[in-house]
Amino acid sequence: MKYDIQLGMLATRAVSELVQAAAENDAQRYRLFLKTSAEFCQSVRESSPQFELDRTVPNDATAFISAVMKISEQRCSERDRDRVYRVARLEPLIQQVLLENRLPTEDEQERIAEMLYEASAADFS
Amino acid sequence: MSRNLLVFLLSSSAENLVRLEDILERRRLAAASREYTAILTAMVDLCANYRHHYLAHRPTIHRLLEGAQLPRVEELALKTLLRNCINTFLTLHELLLFLPRESLRKEMQFFAQSLFGPKYSIRDLSIILTSLYNAFEYSLDVAIRRLDVFMTKVPDAKRLTFGHVMELAIVDRDNPLSWGVLAHEFGHYLDEKHSISSALAAQFVTTKIRPPSGAASGLHKLFRDLASEIFADLTAYYLLGPVSVLPVVNMELDLGLATDKPMPFDRAHPLTITRVTMVEALAAGDNMRLEFFSPYLEALREDDAAKCAQLGPAEKTERDDIDRYVNYFIDEVKADLLARLGGLGLRRFGSVNLQAAVELKPRLEAGVPIGARRKASEKEVRRKLKTLAGGRKVAESRGVFDLLREDPASVAEVVTAGWVAKCEKKSRVLVEAFSQKMEADVFPYLSKVIQQQDMLLMKSIEIISVISGEEHDSAGH
């Protein structure tokens, strides 16, 4: 079983903020929910073997980076891909709500909560 | 997700958290060596964090336990908490392997001795506390044989024989309700010692499948492993009755929460739902009603259906094909395996034992150990004692006083009574815990209930050992 305890804790922290924000109608907590969710997304991207490296580097490192990316692709499980895909779909939305400095709508809360649930599953492959 | 399944998962993940914290606290006290302090502190802190998050979800948990339909966001949030709590528990449990170990409980040794009867010898069989996966999936023998160092460095590795080792998860050391997994392991020991399932599997492959010679060895191995697991399940059922399958259900649901898709067929164990169906069919044939355990069995069915709905059409067909053939194989070999088991002189659990367990349960709930019972009811004993008056013959009086004698229950009855009580009070305990006035009292309450349940069951098993020992002595041995 492959499971990242730190990622799990981030997802848990995010949903705890969400339920408390809803119970207390607390804008500050909603913001913490969004920030922790954004942190979760970033951590998923960074911890994924599929994590994109910047390819805009001087020529002599291109071959090296391509080789590293290829190895990473091979090491990436179906679960990893699914996790990165889910995060990639929601991260822009989270950033946008944060940027607009507003409360997430009910639909947005549900979509983010769903992503946190799905993306924090363990990998048994 | 249904309310029943959510309540089950809530109860299970909270219990795992409490048990893990208790273990870590004991390790922290016992293992004073400084090299362990950092990791133990980190693990304890992580558990404390999860406790804190449970409390943040307290209003949602209240609504769930009151039977209210949770809004979608709240349900997702609660599931995220439970999923990560269980995943963290599973991961930390692996880390326990690297910390100083505790010894086995003497009650567990007696449990094994008593349940496995004349076929158990401590010289041939040892029990170790190990990882959850080893306890439920792989035998130590197989795990060692698969090691690179073993395969490549040990001369004549295939010829080496090992003694048999039964494995129990570290977290289950003090939990007699989980000791049923040892009955499954004992089945593997019997199977190996008496060469029971392999011959039947070989016969099945040769006569029913009739493979071309090139494919035979792989098929023989597949069906040998499958037959061995079926025999182990049958042994566990034979000795311990229907509750033998409940630790497996528990583990399947815990793992089920950790991920979204159903566990795939591992080329040895039938799917858990199939194992449960087999036990249900056996129990029905033995006139045993299983409604006491329905919260667990229903939770498993709901979880399995939800997971299967996540599969694509091809994966679903594959799973159904495998399951159909495994069921056919079970039908083909079950009667023969049971007949071989019946010839080993073991004590079989029957409907009388289930009835006895159900009758013991109220005493357990009243906080009284249930290792012994009187044949007559307390009311009857009192009535007869009142009839004694002066001038009665000694033999007559002795007959009445004999009614006070207590006979030992069986360990299987004790464990079954424990499961019946646990299934019945699962929701109630959660309601009581999460209704504590002070937040700080929620987990200590849960911990107290769990420790009390463990202690009562172990005390009951100890009482059986004491009374059985006395009978043994008074019989002049």
Tell me what the structure shows.
The complex is a heterodimer of chains A (about 120) and B (about 475). Chain A is mainly alpha-helical and about 120 residues long. Chain A has one domain. Helices cover about 75% and strands about 0% of the residues of chain A. Chain B folds into three domains: about 5-100; about 105-340, no CATH class; about 350-370 and about 410-475, no CATH class. Helix content of chain B is about 70%, strand content about 5%. Chain B contains 20 helices and four strands. The mean pLDDT of chain B is about 90. The interface between A and B is medium-sized, with 29 and 31 residues.
Q: Please tally the helical runs of chain B, counting DSSP H or I stretches of 4 or more residues.
A: 20
Total number of strands of chain B: 4
- Determine the N-to-C terminus distance of chain A: 8 Å
Shape of chain A: globular
Task: Outline the low-pLDDT stretches of chain A.
Answer: none
First-last Cα distance of chain B: 58 Å
How many domains would you count in the coordinates of chain B? 3
Largest sheet data of chain B:
2 strands, parallel
Q: What is the count of distinct domains of chain A?
A: 1
Briefly note the structural class of the backbone of chain A: mainly alpha
Radius of gyration of chain A: 16 Å
Q: Tell me about the biggest sheet of chain A?
A: none
Helix and strand composition category of chain B: mainly alpha
Roughly what percent helix of chain A?
Answer: over 70%
* Backbone shape of chain B: globular
Number of helical segments with 4 or more residues of chain A: 5
* Tally of strands of chain A: 0
At a glance:
Chain A is mainly α. Chain A has five helices and no strands.
For this entry, give a set of tags.
heterodimer; A: 125 residues; mainly alpha; 5 helices; 0% strand; B: 477 residues; 3 domains; two-stranded parallel ribbon; two-stranded antiparallel sheet; 20 helices; 4 strands; 4% strand
